[in-house]
Hints:
Blueprint: E1 19-24, H1 31-44, E2 48-51, H2 56-59, H3 69-80, E3 84-89, H4 96-101, H5 128-145, E4 151-156, H6 170-184, H7 187-194, H8 221-249, E5 255-256, E6 258-259, H9 271-275, E7 282-284, H10 294-308, E8 314-318, H11 337-347, E9 350-355, H12 381-395, E10 403-404, E11 408-411, H13 414-420, H14 432-445, E12 450-453, E13 464-467, H15 475-486, E14 490-494, H16 516-519, E15 521-526, E16 534-538, E17 544-548, E18 552-556, E19 560-565, E20 574-581, E21 584-589, H17 599-608, E22 621-628, E23 631-638, E24 644-647, E25 652-654, E26 660-661, E27 664-667, E28 672-677
Parallel strand pairs: 1-2, 1-9, 2-3, 3-4, 4-5, 6-7, 7-8, 8-9, 11-12, 11-13, 13-14, 14-21
Antiparallel strand pairs: 10-22, 15-18, 16-17, 16-19, 19-20, 20-21, 22-23, 23-28, 24-27, 25-26, 25-28
Helix pairs in contact: 5-8, 10-14, 11-12
The chain binds beta-D-galactopyranose (GAL).
Amino acid sequence: MPDRRLTPDHTVPSPHRLAFGGDYNPEQWPESVWQEDVRLMREAGVTLVSVGIFSWALLEPSPGSYDFGWLDRVLDLLHENGIRVDLGTPTAAPPAWFYRAHPDALPVTREGVRYAFGSRAAICHSHPAYRAAAARITEQLARRYGGHPALALWHVHNEYGVPVSACYCDGCAAHFRRWLQTRYTSVEAVNEAWGTAFWSQRYASFDEIDPPRLTPTVGNPAQQLDYRRFADATMRENFVHERDILHALAPGAPVTTNFMTALSQCDSVDYWAWGREVDLVTNDHYLITDGRRTHVNLAMAADLTRSVAGGAPWLLLEHSPSGVNWQPRNPAKRPGEMARNSLAHVARGSEGAMFFQWRQSRRGAEKFHSSMVPHAGTDSRVWREVVALGADVGALAEIRGTRTVPDVAMVWDWQSWWAQSLEWRPSQDLDARERADAFYASLYDRHLTVDFAHPEADLSAYPLVVVPALYLATEAAGRNLRAYVENGGTLVVSCFSGIVDEHDAVHPGPYPGALRDVLGLTVEEWSPLLPGETVRLSGPGGAELGGDVWTEFVVPRGAETVWTYADGPAAGGPAVTRHRLGRGTAWYVSTRLDAEALAPVIDAACADAAIEPRSDLPTDVEVVRRSGENGAYLFALNHTDRDAKVPLERSGTELLGGERAAGHLTVPAGAVRVVRLDAE
Ligand code: GAL
């Protein structure tokens, strides 16, 4: 399909400003409050607000009758005040009348329970009446507001894939059969792909196939994997349907839908595929406060979002000014944390910082979620920090269109994650997401900016590529990684990768089928460890490392052993290996090493890749670069409680304070500095 991505100047609110603002829900407030809203928005430097995302019941109070008056007034008021609009199609929350007419459009769980009306996102994406109703309201909005001067961006639906990742109703069953017919043509091909000779699961016709509903014991893994693909493709089809209406009827504004790339927040969407369908990639990100280093998870989500956008500028469409309301415990952000969060996204490619939400609700499920205008009012820390951040975002306008500069790449594939997460794996403790987090943290701690890449993508631009979890690897992926190494790349692969093909069938021959050649080894057997068990590894110069969760009996076939199991089931055998192949090197790590234990392996791989260590940068002081026609920019974010010094390779001008900087940049505890480096 043609690349619909528009040029950066069409993607964000205006060519001259970064986006700053949030979800604005004026329908929850009397109109008298709106005047105060726009006055405060101006005070805070708001440039863009997201409107109408959940307004279907108000916009179409009964089938086919519309009330646009209030939205007209909101858009006009915003326009008069110089604020642009990200306008929602409200199709994530159909009204009560829709469900009265179509009760079977409520989704059904795997267990056969039908959800009820009264929340949001209760949608069976296969339902023809839902698709028709969504198309009608989208057409109405496109016709009415396509030419409105406030319109900057179309925001289709909301966070596809959460909270309902798939529906298992009879309508979806019929749709799934049609999807399978297109994908496989014949039922014999389905039988072959799903391995239905096993447990008498053979199908004589497509009519016999159902969604993978609740079964007494484990269901067919290939069927489950295909159902995840089907559910994802069905949601995407509905997005494309709305997008195409908007493109046809209101072509002036780009179309997005807000992603949730953080692996902790959405596991049901293959964002590689979605990234190709939107005009502008946008993302929502919320800190998960589980005691881990949240700024590292944030950086990872931002890097993943930029990668889904193909490296192009993207936009952070939601994050929280302070605490959220949906975790077991919801701490307030610490002073300065909001700005660090926002500007970390900007450093990693976002063209602004948007929040959920503008004014804190008095009613409904989200009334205890922080907002830009909190219940406490404007005499509050949150408001003062919002106003200060608005000024900072305003001062960074010139970075628009520049791109974040990556150092290394990490291979990630949602479909492999889906496959690895199915039941009856050798160990439930080996978790793809945990591996990705740990490898990312190890790279973050080396101050390396990470691009993510699909396993079949061109990797030749990166000196180092890490593969933390690629249980499912197609033959094409195997060939791709091999060619990358042969052509001079340095690869680091983690255990239990390269095992199955796209149908969850084990690659023929010894493990790891798809990656044997590139790694120069085979794995005869694996032996997961029990909770609390650990293994010791001995390595160069008598160094020691500790692993847990997983061990393997590795047989080198060309690779050299760098670290050896000192104890445990595979004692005396290779634990970490290195294979010279062509002009490059492939490392293999056969046990679970946490981020800290990975350090010597990553350091050695960096040495192979000729990546200089950045030991002059303190831990948790994040340094990221953006560069483009306007210039080269260095972002320094100090996540520690001590002032830090960041070496500058060139002198420059600090944009948030306006001072000149040379030699070293001092970044006070908790602060952010952005330097426009002088031209070379
Ligand atoms: C997002 C959602 C918003 C709001 C927010 C609260 O996932 O898109 O509408 O609910 O969470 O954190």
